[in-house]
Amino acid sequence: MKKNKTQTPHLSQDNLNNEMMSFIANSPTPFHAVLNLQEILKVYQFSELKESEKWDLKQNGRYFVTKNDSSLAAFVVGNRPAQKSSFKIIGAHTDSPNLKVKPKPDKIFKNFHQLGVEVYGGVLLSTWFDRDLSLAGRVHFENKKGALQSALVDFKSAVAIIPSLAIHLNRTVNENQSINPQKELPPILLQIQDKNNDFRNILASKLSKDGYPVSKILDFELSFYDKNPPAFVGLHDDFIASARLDNLLSCFVAIKGLIASLDNKTAATKVMICQDHEEVGSCSHIGAEGPFLPSILERICFDRESFHQSIKNSIMISSDNAHGVHPNYAEKYDENHGPILNAGPVIKINANQRYATNSETASLFAKLCEDLKVPYQRFVVRADMGCGSTIGPLTSANVGLKVVDVGVPTFAMHSIRELCGGKDSVFLAEVFKSFYSREDL
Asked: Cis omega (within 30 of 0) on the bond before 247?
């Protein structure tokens, strides 16, 4: 099949998508995603900063800072003083809807050991049944010396499953299915052999095998995830199927765009921020409604007056997946605003400010695309339906930034396994590279 050269970005499609799928597979939680983003940045000589220490920033210097191990910001300082320049920011989020393990999760019935879970975000619950589930996250524990210590854990193998009830026992399941998360979602971990072996003991044993000197588990933030790895699907590998495309795709594409622009030194400071808790409203010290981004921008400017001058000339691209037109449910979309997979990134617009896009910021993104001959689309929700949101409006209100909300079209958003087009991630990466590299926008 011949490729349309006007729609093929300069970044290699196969290389970028393979790297992206590997990144997602190795990032089952926001903690792992941030760790993997750090490793990528270190390869390109980004230096780590600590919020608790004084920053000594240099022009064209490369830096990153993390918060709570689950949010990260990276930036390249511009070659002009901040008050005479601006920020070019791309924002995404590290979290995805999932099932989180409760603090006291053990449930024993009929010799089955199950774990109680809490629903995190807007999970498409039906997709979690009959999946090979693993478990990952962050654990705090007391070590052998009596000190508090933390570690990331990933069981990696399929350690649990949520079996469906056979249709013979629920004849109407295909007609009307409702799911009680308290009753129906606790995954089965194992069959009981030792009734004294509760989950905290299992977790301590896992950490000990990983080389950590565990004396006592104190607390944890653990999530179940689908063990099935990302994959190309479709007769011609047109699509990518994966967990957590919303929104690790944007995190990865943002960092690739930033790295691809490093040879282009600019007056503006280039910033990439990937924040946790978007799926539950962003209202936290590490979320988009918190102080993480504004505090970083102010410290780059050195003083508050310079910060305000710089913000006036700055712009942010908020990148989060968009709804592609599902051919089986076309009536759910506005007839003039239905994005198609593999037809380019989507500018997301909402009159009620669920997205922060306005005509100025939409035009800027459109020009970036048109100058690159990258196709782009627009999404507006049906007037008789509600609309999701992103970090865009919260960041715009919190920091005072002009924002455009964009994303790649996606099927099955918030499913345990989502679907996007293989071309769109590369289109978006090329636009991000141009956004960071150009001086005239």
From this structure: yes
Digit-coded pLDDT (tens) for 156-204:
999 999 999 999 999 999 988 899 999 999 999 988 776 778 999 999 9
A 10 A CB-CB count for 200 gives: 19
106, part of any domain: yes
Model confidence at 210: pLDDT above 90: yes
| Cβ(34)–Cβ(69) below 8 Å | yes
Question: Exposed/middle/buried for 283, CB within 10 Å: 0-12, 13-18, 19+?
Answer: exposed
> Do residues 143 and 213 lie in contact, with contact meaning Cβ atoms separated by under 8 Å?
yes
Number of domains in the chain: 2
- The full DSSP string for 390-418 is -HHHHHHHHH--EEEEEE-EEESTTSSSE
Mean pLDDT to the nearest integer, 130-147: 97
The confidence score (pLDDT) of residue 12 equals 77
Phi-psi region of 266 (alpha: psi -120 to 50; beta: other; left: phi over 0): beta
Residue closest to 41 by CA, chosen among 23, 14, 57, 15: 23
Same domain, 62 and 127: no
Whether residues 181 and 260 fall in one domain: no
Q: E strand or H helix at 124, and its extent?
A: none
**The two three-digit tokens of residue 63, written as one number:** 């830096």
Whether residue 274 contacts residue 362, with contact meaning beta carbons closer than 8 Å, is answered with no
pLDDT band at 82 (very low <50, low <70, confident <90, very high): low
Q: How does residue 13 score in pLDDT terms, banded at 50, 70 and 90?
A: confident
Q: Is residue 74 part of a domain?
A: yes
- Judgement on whether residues 295 and 433 belong to the same structural domain of the protein: yes
**Is residue 200 included in any domain, yes or no?**
yes
Task: Please say whether the dihedral angle defined by the alpha carbons of residues 81, 87, 88 and 90, taken in this order, is positive or negative.
Answer: positive
Task: Specify whether 283 is located in the same domain as 174.
Answer: no
Which amino acid appears at position 231 of this protein?
A
Q: Are 362 and 403 in contact (CB under 8 A)?
A: no
Q: Give me the mean pLDDT over the 364-375 stretch.
A: 98
pLDDT band at 1 (very low <50, low <70, confident <90, very high): very low
Residues 182 and 255 in one domain: no
**What 3 state SS string does 282-300 have?**
CCCCCCCCCCHHHHHHHHH
